[in-house]
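FAQ: What does the model actually see?

It sees only this:
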Amino acid sequence: MTEGFNVAAELAGVSDRADAWRFIRGFVAHWRKPVRPGDGCDSGELTEAECRLGSQLPAALWEAYGLFGRRPDLTSVQDSLLSPEHLHVDDGALVFRLENQAVAEWAIRQEHLTDDDPPVVFRRRDGDSDCWMPFLDRFSTACIEMVLSESLFAHSETRADNRPLEESEAIGASPGFQRLALPDYPMWAVEGCVIRWFASPEGLLREDAGEWLWALGLTAPALDSLRGSVPGDWINHPS
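And it is asked to produce this:
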């Protein structure tokens, strides 16, 4: 077991944005590299952004950028958290994150910029409709999702793997895994489908649209154990 930090238990205890930052600090300390002074943007960068935009930025955004805004390994391995100078308003929303091929983006509606921890919306940019749609109900929760998701793509095949889900496969029934306390949230790439997370003491699983599974082990042996607990046609370790 990961001594001192259990992902499922710690996430179940998150009730506000302060809890979210504690969770991120703990997760990063045990699964990645600890957050250190200098990993965040300074207040001058965010103040300049507010002046340029002509609007205040939410407290949760200030806190997140101040904590890990200069940690691309946590924010920008696959998709990208925009730097303060690239924050911009488009169609009534402040865009803060961009999909790696620029076909989707995440934002905060302008009417919620005065909220301490506002809801997040997203949209696709490559279809007939580009309207903003609900993503997660708090910016701090979206930051947890971002750090977890980017962690899946930050490691080599020794600690990360993925595979298709078999028909009717139930990840929640896998031995040693439990559902994380993140709500179902939309998968931007597949309309009407959701993403779910599961964890064991030394493994993380993300289920995309009931069709694909991503895995991260705390160590290489932990990943091997995970693949044994959830057997299937793993891309990096064919059976």
